[in-house]
Amino acid sequence: MRRRDADVAVFLGRSDGIPTPGDVSRLTQNERRRADGFRTAILRGHFIAAHAARQRILSAILGHPPGELRFSEAPGGKPVLRPPHHWLRFNLSHSAPWFLLACSARHEIGVDIEVLAKQWPGPLASAAFSGAERQALEREADPGRQNLLLHTVWVRKEALLKGCGTGLRMDPRDVTVDADPSLGISYPNRAGRPIGAWRILGLPPVPGAAVALAVAGVPRRICCWRITEASA
Ligand SMILES: CC(C)(COP(=O)(O)OP(=O)(O)OC[C@H]1O[C@@H](n2cnc3c(N)ncnc32)[C@H](O)[C@@H]1OP(=O)(O)O)[C@@H](O)C(=O)NCCC(=O)NCCS
């Protein structure tokens, strides 16, 4: 299936933390500056891999060399393409060693990937989750399952906030998402009311990580690819 046939195309990649010279050459000046600010070589490598893959994939879809793509930020800080390529929406998430990129010409989108921590930092639940979410999480007695639910809620919420473009500038406690990891589609709410036309979709499982995609509207076809260096 060609990438252009998808309403929403999602690409999952894994970095080994060792950037190739080709990867580095694809980064924008700003990305190179940011890459050089990482504390460790491996974190720098993961950042470079995610951003180089983003350039490769967007430029392949648009049919333009990576060096010709120009980015800016929407008012809430969401990275966007500048005209004439602004019609292609995208969102990137990375949690070492994974990165996830969603692209769509038809829908506003947000993605999140989070490697499962052995234990979710306790205070984060009260800082980030709504009352309804905390109640759902407290109902789960098994620590392992509770940890999975915490990550599930978090990635759903973050995918939504990133889709809306606010990121954590919107108070995450104001938004409630479903905690059930088995749900294929769920509908976030704010004080019991739907948040526009947003829906949250599960993605194919990623070993050791939680993932979510938020889409505004009703996508007809979502295609997911696992990318390798050669295919992106
Ligand atoms: C955007 C944000 C949700 C990222 O969360 P995260 O789990 O650390 O990181 P993810 O890997 O899932 O997403 C990061 C990517 O989202 C994208 N992004 C950045 N701001 C975004 C926004 N407002 N909306 C959607 N996507 C955004 C970028 O591509 C970013 O990648 P980059 O940093 O490598 O360029 C969070 O950092 C945020 O809201 N920042 C803005 C508010 C802020 O700085 N608050 C202080 C910290 S609480």
Automatic annotation (TrEMBL):
Indicate yes or no for the key word Isomerase: no
Q: Which InterPro entries match?
A: 4-PPantetheinyl_Trfase_dom, 4-PPantetheinyl_Trfase_dom_sf, P-Pant_transferase_sf
For this UniProt record, the keywords arranged alphabetically read as follows: Transferase
Per the record, the domain of life is Bacteria
Please report the stretch or stretches of sequence annotated as the 4'-phosphopantetheinyl transferase domain. Answer: 109-190
Transmembrane feature ranges = none
| Coiled-coil positions | none
Single GO molecular function: transferase activity
Q: Which family does it belong to?
A: Belongs to the P-Pant transferase superfamily. Gsp/Sfp/HetI/AcpT family.
Protein's name in the database? 4'-phosphopantetheinyl transferase superfamily protein
Q: Which organism is it from?
A: Teichococcus vastitatis
